[in-house]
C-alpha cells in the first residue's frame, strides 16, 4: 500500500497540474461559458471518464504503445484534432439565440458528456503523461504496480473534478451575462471556435 504522505503529495501535485492552463481546463471553461455551469460539469465528468481509459492504458501497457509507435500516436491525435476542428466549425456556425430559444438549443447531457470523453481519450499525450507521472509515486516494494496505478489514477480524477468543477461554476456565471445578449453570444461563439481551432492545431503538431 502506498504511504499516506506519498498520496497527499500526489494529490497536491495533481491539484496544481489541474490548475495549470491546458487543453482540458480550457475546454471545460469554454463549454461552461457557452452553455452554463451544468454543461461544464457534464464535460468534466466526460473528461474524467476518459482519464479512466488513460489510467488503464498505463496499467496494462497501452501507453507504452503510444510512446513507441509513431503510427498509433499519429492516428489517435489526428482523430482528436479532427474532432476539435468539428467543434470549432459548430461554434463558428452557431446561431445567436436568447431566452427560451437559447435554452432549447442547448446540447443534451449525453452529448456534453460524450464531448468530454472523446476529447480526453483521443489525446495520446495524456496517456504518455500518465506513463511518466504515475510511476514516480508507485513502488514495487509496496506490492503489484497495477493496483497502485489504479489508486493514483483515481486520486488524480478526484483532484480534476474539484478543480474543473470550480472552473465550470465560475465560467458558467461569467458566461450567463453574455448569453443574455445576442451580440455578446456571437462573440462568445467566435471565441470558442478560435479556442477549439487552437487546441486542434496544438494536438495535431504534438510530438511523442
Describe the 3D structure.
By secondary structure, the protein is mainly alpha-helical. The protein has one domain (25-204). The protein has helices spanning 4-19, 23-35, 37-60, 62-68, 70-93, 100-104, 109-121, 124-133, 145-178, 182-204. The longest helix is centred in the last third of the chain and has 34 residues, at 145-178.
Instruction: Give the number of helices.
Output: 10
Give me the oligomer status: single chain
Distance N to C terminus: 32 Å
Fraction of residues in helices?
Answer: over 70%
Q: How many structural domains in the coordinates?
A: 1
- The backbone outline, from C-alpha atoms, is globular
Structural class: mainly alpha
Q: Could you state the order of secondary-structure elements as H and E?
A: HHHHHHHHHH
Average residue-wise pLDDT: 85
Which spans have pLDDT < 50 for at least 5 consecutive residues?
Answer: 98-105
- Strand content of the residues, in percent? under 5%
Radius of gyration: 18 Å
Can you summarize this structure?
With 208 residues, the chain is an all-alpha fold. The chain has 10 helices and no strands. About 4% of the residues have low confidence.
List the helices and strands and how they pair.
Blueprint: H1 4-19, H2 23-35, H3 37-60, H4 62-68, H5 70-93, H6 100-104, H7 109-121, H8 124-133, H9 145-178, H10 182-204
Helix pairs in contact: 1-9, 2-3, 2-9, 2-10, 3-7, 3-8, 3-9, 4-5, 4-8, 5-10
Q: What features would you highlight for this structure?
A:
208 residues; mainly alpha; 81% helix; 0% strand
